[in-house]
Amino acid sequence: MDGMTLKSRLGDKDRQRFFVTFLGGKLIGIVVAFAAILGPGQLILGKAVHAVAPNAEIPIQDVINGQNTAWVLLAAFLVFFMQAGFMMLEAGFARTREVVNVLQECIVDTCLCALLFWAFGFAFMFGFGNGFIGHEFFFLNGAQATYTYHGATDTGVAFMAFFLFQFAFADTCSTITSGAMVGRTAFKGDLIYSVAVSGFIYPIIGHWVWGPGGWLQTVRNGVWIHDFAGSSVVHTMGGFIALAGAIVLGPRLGRKFKRDGGGLPPGHDLTIAAIGGVILWFGWYGFNPGSTLSSFDAAGIGRVATNTTLAAAAGGLAAMLWVYPRVKKWDMGITINGFLGGLVAITAPCYYVNATAAVIIGLVAGVVVVLGIDLIEHMRIDDPIGAVAVHGFAGIWGTWSVGLFSNGKFGVPKGLLWGGDAKQLWSQVWGNAVVAVASFGAAYAVMKVVMMMKLLRVSEDGELEGMDIHEHGSPAYHPEAAYTGKGM
Amino acid sequence: MDGMTLKSRLGDKDRQRFFVTFLGGKLIGIVVAFAAILGPGQLILGKAVHAVAPNAEIPIQDVINGQNTAWVLLAAFLVFFMQAGFMMLEAGFARTREVVNVLQECIVDTCLCALLFWAFGFAFMFGFGNGFIGHEFFFLNGAQATYTYHGATDTGVAFMAFFLFQFAFADTCSTITSGAMVGRTAFKGDLIYSVAVSGFIYPIIGHWVWGPGGWLQTVRNGVWIHDFAGSSVVHTMGGFIALAGAIVLGPRLGRKFKRDGGGLPPGHDLTIAAIGGVILWFGWYGFNPGSTLSSFDAAGIGRVATNTTLAAAAGGLAAMLWVYPRVKKWDMGITINGFLGGLVAITAPCYYVNATAAVIIGLVAGVVVVLGIDLIEHMRIDDPIGAVAVHGFAGIWGTWSVGLFSNGKFGVPKGLLWGGDAKQLWSQVWGNAVVAVASFGAAYAVMKVVMMMKLLRVSEDGELEGMDIHEHGSPAYHPEAAYTGKGM
Amino acid sequence: MDGMTLKSRLGDKDRQRFFVTFLGGKLIGIVVAFAAILGPGQLILGKAVHAVAPNAEIPIQDVINGQNTAWVLLAAFLVFFMQAGFMMLEAGFARTREVVNVLQECIVDTCLCALLFWAFGFAFMFGFGNGFIGHEFFFLNGAQATYTYHGATDTGVAFMAFFLFQFAFADTCSTITSGAMVGRTAFKGDLIYSVAVSGFIYPIIGHWVWGPGGWLQTVRNGVWIHDFAGSSVVHTMGGFIALAGAIVLGPRLGRKFKRDGGGLPPGHDLTIAAIGGVILWFGWYGFNPGSTLSSFDAAGIGRVATNTTLAAAAGGLAAMLWVYPRVKKWDMGITINGFLGGLVAITAPCYYVNATAAVIIGLVAGVVVVLGIDLIEHMRIDDPIGAVAVHGFAGIWGTWSVGLFSNGKFGVPKGLLWGGDAKQLWSQVWGNAVVAVASFGAAYAVMKVVMMMKLLRVSEDGELEGMDIHEHGSPAYHPEAAYTGKGM
Amino acid sequence: MLELITAIIKPHKLDDVKEALLANGVEGMTVTEVRGFGRQRGKTENFRGSEYKIDLIPKMKIEIVVAAETADHLIAVIVEAARTGKIGDGKVWKMAIDGLTRVRTGEMGSEAI
Amino acid sequence: MLELITAIIKPHKLDDVKEALLANGVEGMTVTEVRGFGRQRGKTENFRGSEYKIDLIPKMKIEIVVAAETADHLIAVIVEAARTGKIGDGKVWKMAIDGLTRVRTGEMGSEAI
Amino acid sequence: MLELITAIIKPHKLDDVKEALLANGVEGMTVTEVRGFGRQRGKTENFRGSEYKIDLIPKMKIEIVVAAETADHLIAVIVEAARTGKIGDGKVWKMAIDGLTRVRTGEMGSEAI
Ligand SMILES: Nc1ncnc2c1ncn2[C@@H]1O[C@H](COP(=O)(O)OP(=O)(O)O)[C@@H](O)[C@H]1O
Ligand SMILES: Nc1ncnc2c1ncn2[C@@H]1O[C@H](COP(=O)(O)OP(=O)(O)O)[C@@H](O)[C@H]1O
Ligand SMILES: Nc1ncnc2c1ncn2[C@@H]1O[C@H](COP(=O)(O)OP(=O)(O)O)[C@@H](O)[C@H]1O
After folding, report:
1. How far apart are CA C212 and CA A45, in angstroms?
2. Which run of H or of E encompasses A177?
3. What letter would DSSP give residue B192?
4. Which of F60, F61, F62 to mutate to test the interface with A (most CBs of A within 10 A)?
5. How high is the pLDDT of residue B319?
6. Do A292 and B40 count as a contact with CB atoms less than 8 A apart?
7. Higher pLDDT, F113 or B394
8. Which ligand is nearest to the CA of D91?
């Protein structure tokens, strides 16, 4: 290898993934600058704080752990940032009088979710236990240096970084729910069901698919559901919990449905909603590429990121074009829902499919979202944000699409449409159905109980006055604050 | 240690932070934790999935590829996020009745651009072909592991990550255009010209400067235009396409120009505009530092990021102070345009100059933007966002500034003002002029044709009613949604 | 090389970019793909540009420097993005007539701060000099490849990346100030005091704690204040400068305080404020985890990120629940202030404490913020954003909490509540008090002088008309722009 | 003879009042967002943990130009549709107008309603 | 004698009407954003892929206090400037006012216009 | 007999006027954000480095229904509270109203004020 030019080396396909060799001869020592990894406690010292022993060794594992951890943390930050996107999308699509409520719910759900996931959610989901539930790592006790799926596979990701990434996912699931329940959910009810969703439903059902030893990974002779970043675990689940909530709550007062001569009340601020949508797209770059858990998988993160983009683009265009003949206008709301549907759908297959498949998956998802919104409206369910269609239905489609479009090169057998057999598809359908049914059922029970406790739905007067003033004591906008010392 | 399985190693707490040892004598092997790079298909397994063979080797190239790819992807995400910034800036500077239009154009242009760049834009720009156009990688076919400039230089960046980064750049160029055409462009016309811009004009002209074998790199005896991150390729081009669009469209109805006793109508929401501007600045940290394509170039990315900051800061202050004597007020709109001008200008030279030069380049850019806006207004061209001045004119200045201020240490000869000769400067001027003239010419032709097809400009009635209702069927704001079930 | 201490190695300039050597024995060859690190000047070439010499060596230091630099830069970008968060929070909490003023101040302060920090701020703070002030690196002259705390500890972070990170911190401090001075500060006065804060007060006092050889690191026999990411340096300081400003300015005209039968005027746009708050939380993931200066410290960055999250969550809930009995409403404004308080508090201890401590620190911080706001209101000080309570008081609490909760494993002795002695706590209290008193004193003097020059407070007419029109010539919102060519 | 009826009502009663008026032959109306107080004398909101009193509460103002002879009936219709029986329900008043013109056609008087 | 002229017009006609009034000697006016319907009876918008009907369309309300003798002329001026001939052009009406005061000076009656 | 007093004032004078009216026995009012010009004839703003003239300046419109006998006194109260002596202070006018109803109770006439 010596003596070869860079060019020849790089041009040589067989060597593109070359490994540095240390063949023969004695290697005396490789000295590594440890300074950077000895923690910043020392960084503020005005003097030298330590010396590296001679013959220090290369912490290759540290390079890997550091890089993976940084990648996963940055992805976690992006997923966290999706909260801002959800808040803007939901607030923008809501009516003026329920805006503070939407915002405050998202903020408080995030706070709750963090504490619950720390206390036991993470333990239920990613602790080892049985196929149904984990019971390790309560309050992050017993954590190791890196998360290893109970010794099965070292992610190379520092334990608490892995925790944060998974918290951000849990948080997303709980936020999706609130979107379908906008405008009539009492805040106390929101607190209660959020505890159930973030603390129990999401982590337990999530354990089945993603936890070490979850039962959905062991059924069906090794052909189990593959859900790369959560079309099922996060989105189908979020969407079906949302559906349960919207059904139990019933529609907002005065909400007339399409078949009764009414329709969805328009969002109060489409600027905020559109920016929120784009922030969600941006955050999805943490959601999907971050789910490799490793930036060493360079081809993988590139593929995931590009597939994510193409599906979103295709979904947005498909939804817009699908409704154009109907309304003869270029509807922005549906375009946003469409690209979000594309993002939801590609979330499961993003790692396993090629770009062409990503485009097709996105196109179909855009249409699924439109039809899904129509269906929900037809069923007289009041979902102000479209959470059920965007997350629930596109999540189903996305999970199935793994079985249809997997190109067989990345750990999942070839999909049906690329000439594979239907086994994987059925596993996807089955696994997704389990998730959907279980989450809907559990959420329906929880919501019903909270409803019966008279805590889920705000009083009629409160709803007419508006959630913001009734529950939070303040409208979102005080334009008169322009002129006077206080509210007018 | 050799011969141990990954599992046993990781299960052993005492070794959790193990260092690869190279103890005297022969190094038989370096065991690498491959787990992280084997893809996440396995991560959901409830059992150990593989053991590392003894004698595995260190994939140094993988460290490099992983790190570069992660860097470029994160940069691509930031550049993508600039869409949110552009949307907010453009929407905020627009009038209330054209806000949805602005937002929807940006969203749909992004969707279109992704699909076009995948289908052929990337092939035209970064595929090998001839000096004028590339024709490799249609639909990303024939992609290699990393992008290598046809074997010339391995970027160490996974192919699809490189694609995504370049898509985000293309998207920026197309979004700039829409800014100057706000308020009177029919949506169908927008779709058509966007296909031309994203699919053909940007990638083909871009190929000349950045593509493998582009002709602007070979003229003038090796002293070719250096445009580090796109003052010419993205911004001058975007600005001049915008100029062509604004000229062909003509001004908005009722728009009176300064010399006719009128002036630019004020933006409807400066809060949104200001935040959008800051988001653009933030996104620029992907644009410029990401263009190193490598985080190994630690000094380089630090220098680029700092230069970017200093030029923006100088541009904002310069613009604000330049207009202060005129209006006797601290004008926020011009401050935003000013720092954006600084960012545009530093985009070409950010790698090649030192901090002092960055400050000077920014100061000049701030003034260029103000004078440019005045000039465009004087020419009775209606550019609601200032796209021509900010991107077009500051882009020219930035491209030239490489020839003036390059410090000679980073691959470009010393600039004229630091004692170098004028050769590089002339190459910058020449190359930039080619880009400006070619993009203006091509865009002018396209716009004219679409205009003649009666698709570019909305009807008079539609314009008076407002683009939002006429083209998109909905205003941006529904404050009345506070009070009633539906729109009032 | 073996046997050399880290210090001597890093102090030796000739070796700063050292390559690990493989002396003794035969090194057969490790070929490294240099392409990626040779800068992008070459990337646009259509031909091979260089070949790697045989026997090239592994630049392990480059791997480390590249990774640390990328980490710190990305963190710096996130911290920069906090400007958008601050702008939204401050603008949203302000009254309609002072919104442009708030936004423009943040933008211009950022511009000013960048130029000042480049010119001398960084030199004062991070240059070597004496215990009181540094005087190296004016205009970034004399910069080395990486920042090394005057040779004490090589951060492995490229110099200009370290600069950018620290600039973003300085910028934060200056922005906090403006929050308490909203609505009545003349723009000229803002410019003047900002120069004092960003250029002198912050860097000089910051030098004492974080600069190489700062005096607060040497007092008290080696048990000095530990402030990981700036509860004291950035937040206490920012909060107390803000306090000085608010006191010197006096309240806004017509502002009646609680005990006089009035209260804080409500913010004009809580949507914008809430999103701004969440953006701040997001940006804090740069602030705290970035302060490790290294992503090699995988466990460290994970711990810091998770602690940051838990403290924020606890702070938000605590504040909301604390005020619930009082107002019988779920107050969103206080929830936002509460989680921000949690973030401020955890900033000092985030590296040194475990998750349980983080939750406790956050809970207490949430209450501190509420009581702090009450206290400031009771003292008839008009702080429209709550900067003093959130940054000043929670910053004090956070700094103290290191001495209470440090778990003793990460470079700081065990905290009092975990069974340690009180020495560290007293150092924290003492160091924090020095910072608070010094910054308050210096700022008070500066503000008083500017006030006496009649430049700090806007005229009564200007204040009644509103800062936006009076100082900036434009209101933030032009809804009438919906209907007419120009402003109505 | 024409009268201008002005009604100040609770915002969420707008739909009801509108429908009642349409059902009673009213063919046009103009609506404005206003704020006001009467016996209701404001209410309490809270911001960042403190309560404060707002005097002026959001209301909707409806204006309709009608033939004088239908005015009293329509006022009764409005009052019925807008009433919740709680404080803050609002006021309705009428004033004589001297002339009305439809812009589109130039028609005048009751033709123009 | 003074009259108050109230005109409801299409928003984009505001500039034209304003200029016409200025050209006819009017020295002051007050403008309010309102919503309304008349013969136009609302129109169709769409949101997230579905159409819905909005009854109340944005209009501008112009109020001017003028000397009684110029009122009819000014109404004609407004009607001409505001007319597009399409549905939704609006209405203009006038009412007698009993007294006018300029706040700055305390002048009363037609002095105060 | 009842009168409707309409006052156009500077926005920042709203609090003062409101308090003065309350102090003089007024028990209800309705406030609208409006824009207008009179002698003041607009002013200059700037945007992105250029000045432009705006004709219509933000004002507040206050409407109060009062007993006819108190009207002139209350107009004087408003004028005094709203005056700054600078251009743009606004106008106050009154008109007779033919009937007033309180929605909550259906009371009519001056009972309903
Ligand atoms: N005297 C008045 N003049 C003008 N508007 C009034 C007057 N009194 C009440 N209003 C308007 O009517 C609204 C409702 O009045 P309120 O006194 O609360 O109702 P009620 O006492 O009839 O239950 C107020 O918000 C205000 O806008
Ligand atoms: N009877 C009415 N009373 C009050 N306002 C009315 C009435 N009729 C119409 N308007 C106002 O005039 C506007 C235009 O009326 P419209 O009937 O559409 O115009 P036209 O029929 O004259 O073409 C409406 O939006 C509404 O604000
Ligand atoms: N003739 C008018 N008709 C209706 N409103 C008027 C008239 N003249 C003035 N106004 C209103 O009064 C406000 C203040 O008028 P302006 O002429 O500036 O005050 P003044 O001349 O009394 O100092 C204007 O902004 C406008 O809203």
Report:
1. 7
2. helix A159-179
3. H
4. F60
5. 98
6. yes
7. B394
8. 1
Determine how β-strand D43-47 pairs with β-strand D50-54: antiparallel
DSSP-assigned states of every residue in C311-345: HHHHHHHHHHHHHHHHHSS--HHHHHHHHHHHHHH
Q: Which ligand is nearest to the CA of E37?
A: 2
**F47: which strand partners?**
F50
Amino acid of residue C471: E
Q: How far is the CA of F9 from the centre of ligand 3 (A)?
A: 9
Cα dihedral across residues C338, C344, C350, C352: positive or negative: negative
Nearest chain D alpha carbon to A466:
D12
Q: Give residue for tokens 């396209």.
A: B446
Find the mean pLDDT for residues C384-396: 97
Residue E43: its pLDDT value, please?
84
Question: What's the CA gap between B402 and B424, in Å, rounded?
Answer: 8
Distance F91 CA to ligand 3 centre (A): 6
Q: For helices A159-179 and A237-249, give the axis angle rounded to 10 degrees.
A: 30
Set of chain B residues whose Cβ sits within 8 Å of the Cβ of C30: 60
Considering only CA atoms, which of D38, D55, C58 is closest in space to residue F26?
D38
DSSP 3-state of E102: strand
Cα–ligand 2 centroid distance for D29 (angstroms): 6
Per-residue pLDDT at A277 exceeds 50: yes
Q: Token digits for A351? A: 């790692």
Look at B333 and F51 and tell me if their CB atoms are within 8 Å. no
C224, amino acid identity: W
The domain that contains E92 carries what CATH number? 3.30.70.120
Q: What is the dihedral of CA D20, D25, D29, D35, to 10 degrees?
A: -30
Q: How far apart are CA E8 and CA F79, in angstroms?
A: 28
pLDDT greater than 50 at residue C149 = yes
Q: What is the pTM of this model?
A: 0.92
pLDDT at C54 over 90: no
pLDDT of the residue at D36: 93
What are the pLDDT digits (tens) for D6-35?
999 998 899 899 999 999 999 999 999 999
Structural domain of residue E39, as residue ranges? 2-112
Is residue E8 lining ligand 2, measured as CB closer than 6 Å? yes
- Give the model's pLDDT for residue C483: 56
User: Hey, what are A15's tokens?
Assistant: 């060597």
What value does the mean pLDDT take over residues A86-102? 96
CB A208 within 8 A of CB A131: yes
Interhelix angle B270-287/B332-347, rounded to 10 degrees, is 10
CA angle (A145, A147, A153) in 5-degree steps = 120
CA of D104 relative to ligand 2 center, distance in Å: 10
Number of domains within chain F: 1
Model confidence at B59, pLDDT cuts 50, 70, 90, reads low
Q: Could you write out the DSSP letters of every residue in A333-391?
A: HHHHHHHHHHHHHHHTTTTTS-HHHHHHHHHHHHHHHHHHHHHHHHTT---TT-HIIII
What residue spans of B94-127 are helical by DSSP H?
A: 99-116, 122-126
Out of F40, F41, F60, F84, give the residue to mutate to test ligand 3, the one with the largest number of ligand atoms within 8 Å of its CB: F40
CB C41 within 8 A of CB C182: no
What residue in D sits closest to B480 (Cα-Cα)?
Answer: D33
Query: pLDDT digits over C255-273, tens only?
Result: 989 999 888 889 999 999 9
Domains in chain B (CATH in brackets) are: 6-61 (no CATH), 66-472 (1.10.3430.10)
All residues of chain C having their beta carbon less than 8 Å from the beta carbon of residue A29 are 2, 22-23
Around Cβ C71, how many Cβ atoms within 10 Å?
A: 32
In this prediction the ipTM stands at 0.92
d(CA B282, CA B79): 9
Distance from CA of F99 to the nearest CA of C (A): 34
